[in-house]
Amino acid sequence: MYQKNALRRVRTFLAEKARWIRTIRRRVLGRKCADRPGDLHTRVTFRAAVDAVLPNTPELEAEIGADHVPGGNDVGLAEFVAIYVDHRFQLGLPRTRRNVELVKPVANVLDAAALKLIARGNNRDEPSDEWPVKLFDGTDVSPARIADVAGPFARLSPKDRLRAINVLDEIEAQVTLRNGRFVEFDGGLVGQLVVGFAELIYYSEWQGYPDVTRMPFGQDHANDPTTVQGWRQTGFPGFSNGYPCLRGYLGTETGPLGSGDVWTTIDDRGDAPVSLLEAPGRFRENEYDTDDYEEPYPEGGD
Amino acid sequence: MVADSYDVVVVGAGGDGPVAAWKLAEAGLSVLIIEAGPFHGNEKWPNPHTEPGAEASSDVEDLSGELLDEQFSTREFEMVNRLLFGPADDERGFWMRKFPGDGAILQCAGVGGTTLHYTGCHPRAYPAAIDEQDHWPIEYADLLPYYREVEELCDVQPAPVTAKEELFFRGAAAAGWEFIDEMNVTRPGYRPQPNAIRQPDDRLHVDGDYDGDFTYPDVTGHTLGLGDITGSPHPRGAPFEEKAKRASNVSFVPAAMRTGNVTIRPNAFVVDVTTETHLGDRPTATGVTFRDTWSGTTTEVGAEVVVLAAGAIETPRLWMNADLPKNEWVGRGLTIHFGDNVMGLWKADELEATLGKPTIDQHEGENIAARFDYPGLGMLQTVGTTPGIGAILGFGASASGFSFQNDTEDAPWDTMGRLAGTELKRILSNYRRMIQVLVVSDDRPMKRNGVSVQKGAEDEHGPIPLVNYAPSEADRRRRDELAEIATEILREAGASHVHRSDSPPTALHLHSTMRMGKVLDQACEAYAVDRLFVADHSALANGVGGPNPTNTGQALAARTAEKIVTRYF
What we know:
The structure holds two protein chains of two kinds. By secondary structure, chain A is mainly alpha-helical. Chain A has eleven helices and five strands; from the N terminus they run H-H-H-H-H-H-H-H-H-E-E-H-H-E-E-E. Chain A has helices at residues 2-29, 40-53, 61-64, 77-88, 103-120, 130-135, 143-149, 152-155, 158-169, 188-203, 229-232, and strands spanning 172-176, 182-186, 249-252, 258-267, 274-280. Chain A has a three-stranded antiparallel beta sheet with strand order 3-5-4, with no helix packed on it. In chain A, strand 1 (172-176) and strand 2 (182-186) form a beta hairpin. Chain B is α/β, with parallel strands linked by helices. Chain B has a domain at 5-154 and 229-333 and 509-568: FAD/NAD(P)-binding domain (3-Layer(bba) Sandwich). Chain B is 24% helix and 17% strand. In chain B, strand 8 (284-292) and strand 9 form a beta hairpin. The longest helix of chain B has 20 residues, at 473-492. Chains A and B meet through helix 9, strand 1, strand 2, helix 10 and strand 3 of A and helix 3, helix 4, strand 3, helix 6 and helix 10 of B.
């Protein structure tokens, strides 16, 4: 049984690696899309990442409602994440030196992580063309073309894609150089980019801009909570100038921090209950003594 | 116009530089502040992100609340990208740094610096962090008069309580912690944030019937609409100096400009410190060279004294790139308050019983208004965030992978790690029934942690800062204990689910890379270069115990300015 699994693992890995190598030429020389950074391989990879992080979730309909079904790829999130990475993380100087695109290397790193996951046999599902092809349902990109350029990351199941991102988390190095300089590196940064930034953008006001393929700068925003999917799915009511939600000021009736009527009591253990009071006060300019200070966790000298 | 020379040139108009400039100008000295980012809310730059505008501003009448209203939209995605450390030009990205670990550095560029997105939190250091931890060459008592001066100018006041703070205080009390009403904290307990934010109009009480606009002059002070992280123009319609959040652009910058002795030059990145060295003597600072971030032209300006206030990353970077004398502690000893995020989620009926409504509504109130202090460990604070920032801080970034890979059976929290997929969407659907607690640990200065530069890894301003950081075992244990306390407080407050991020080393607070006592003397003048002072958080000898460092950085900058006047003028 073990042998059979090991053989299957090696076979899967070699097949994926071979596919990946075959696509290198296309990816390196691949035609750049006119209106977006990267090439089709990059787009497939970013859509695969977004599909894993913010998927379409029909299973949530019965639980919390139909509003919670659509995911990031229903609103063009992957394409914008690529635009965002390209715009905000610039290597080189625009206007004087060519900007080096980061989106392609990010996509390639995700593929490398996927291959490593497969080599370890830690993928739970067999890689398949079906996953990336499904990501382009309803678009004018042909399934054959998607299958042709999709890398190993996009061919993993959504959960395995997250496992592949986690492989990057494990890449850590800490070195003290001979001149005493300490250097550390953490591969998890790529994961923070495709997971963290995707979440930031998706749940922010981004989808409410008239042109979601541009940075928000200079664009109007209707601040209409019904038009932003991430807001509908969180219940965020949009930005507001203010709210009448003041409950009072924390203090005691005998202390300096607040005064006036008690709105509610927070802590009635002591002689002077801690309450929310009507009016604000000031902090006490107290005498202090640090002689009793004890270090809870002394440094071990590192 | 920028003149050829000044009594003092201050590099950086962030949280601390304008404090030093204000004190120096009050003493009658001519001061030039050079700032890498834009100047928002200034009539000289009506479109600060699309055109270069004027060269400099020295008239307080240039400041415009109306422009600030227009430029600070409070939309989180737009404003985070506008304010984070990068050039004014919309077409350009962030200025590159090598981040610590798999975390990030969250600093701002622009007049006001990182106080543009700080949440107004202005507590003092823990006295024990200065008097007992063996890092500082001066005593806590030395800072007290300067704390008072800063607190008065910034209107530091106890923060108001809304639903999220009430819930946290109830949890802290139920967990057995004591209430604190003091400025100088020596024991663990809970208290309102001392915030540099003007308090809200009392008509905004939840029991009132206010249905007017939340704009000036209908209301004054904070309007209890979230926006402190995104620049905060509230109350809209107010004159520049009547804005509720007293970021340094609103508090110290106008005070400095009003003296008539201060010129501010934005969009100018200082790339060199010029010195003169007489035979056998130490170098003496004589001025700086800056590069215009729009045109790329460079300008040299002379000074009797140079003050570096570019922050804990850029100040040591500038020192190293300016080829100033080597000192083994320049750039070393970085502390970042190695932090974490613990999220509590509630069920609607639980909230109804405690708060009288089925939601917490973290988008209401000030961003950060309740805190828990623990000298020796650090602090906790509640955070209300808009959903995008909340998602990345609470669920999008972790040092321990995805939650489905972490076994939390024996842990106090229910889940830990990054969230993605169905699980993420399910949890975020509870946004209005959720509180985030920010864990801020008292990490200690280690020589290995800090900023270095490497020839070849460069941008238009020379070698970029390479920031390396790894917490010590004791730092981790302090953070773990605080995360456990946060979890207990949230559970006592009725949370039905607690999630711990195990955040990567995200640097919100940055200090101690040019430490007093190591690189600087007790007046914060460099040991190795005469007439070169540091007045920013890099001069702090440690992380001040964990409390938000702005107040201490500003108090020390005020003290340094007085020392400069006494020593050289």
